[in-house]
Amino acid sequence: MVPKGHHATNPPPLRPHAHTSRRRVLRQVLVTGLAAPFFGALVAMLRRVEASSTRLTVQIPPDVPAGLSALDEAIVYRGEDGVIRAYSSRCTHLGCRIDRIVGDEAVCPCHGSRFRADGTVSGGPALRPLKRLRIDPHEASGGWIASAS
Fold first, then answer.
1. Domain 57-147, what architecture?
2. How many other C-beta atoms are found inside a 10 Å radius of the C-beta of residue 124?
3. Mean pLDDT for the chain?
4. What CA–CA distances, in Å, run from 83 to 26, 58, 64, 87, 129?
5. Tens-place pLDDT, residues 71-121
6. pLDDT (0 to 100) of residue 9
7. Residue 82 DSSP SS3
8. Cβ-based neighbours of 86, under 8 Å, separated by 6 or more
9. What is the pLDDT of residues 118-147, one digit of tens each?
10. Measuring CA to CA, which residue among 84, 14, 91, 104 is closest to residue 45?
11. 3-state DSSP call for residue 118?
12. Is 19 helix (H, G, I), strand (E, B) or coil?
């Protein structure tokens, strides 16, 4: 029964923009959910790059063994003839710190890039060789100091 002075009407139709608004909100939530991990990874990569570009000095002890060794921020190669070479331990793919030696190769723990004793890439995803460090004798210890030029 309709009160006096009022007309019986159907409820107003749903506004078309009400559905659009929900869709828009759901789309924004989806985009944000997908973008957040991407930006997190980007920030982590930029931090690694920043860490790899800072001034680097690593002390190499006189008793470093022949072959490849991972020391702090450097990958060190000591030949059988006693020649020492050092490279930054930052992978040239995304800047992860290389801390493993497997056989005669340095292996990045993040994506598996492999580097030979001369710093060149033997397996990707890295495409560039490791950054070579300068070696200077360290009189006090009898070892060496590796530093970024």
1. 3-layer Sandwich (2.102)
2. 11
3. 83
4. 62, 17, 11, 14, 19
5. 888 999 999 888 999 999 999 988 899 999 999 999 999 999 999 999 999
6. 64
7. coil
8. 58, 60, 74, 75, 76, 77, 132, 133, 135, 144, 146
9. 999 999 899 999 999 999 999 988 999 898
10. 91
11. coil
12. helix
Strand partners, 71: 74
> Domain residues of the chain, as ranges?
16-54, 57-147
Asked if 120 and 27 touch (Cβ cutoff 8 Å), the reply is no
Cα–Cα distance for residue pair 107/122, rounded to 1 Å: 10
Q: Are 89 and 149 in contact (CB under 8 A)?
A: no
Q: Which two tokens stand for residue 76?
A: 């060190």
Is pLDDT at 55 greater than 70 in this prediction? no
Predicted TM-score (pTM) of this structure:
0.63
Measured over all CA atoms, what is the biggest interatomic distance in the chain, rounded to whole angstroms? 109
Residues facing residue 75 across a β-bridge: 70, 87
**pLDDT at residue 29, as a whole number:** 83
The four Cα atoms 78, 84, 89, 94 give a dihedral, to 10 degrees, of -100
Q: State both tokens at 101.
A: 């030696």
CB distance 132 to 84 below 8 Å: no
Q: What is the pLDDT of residue 87?
A: 94
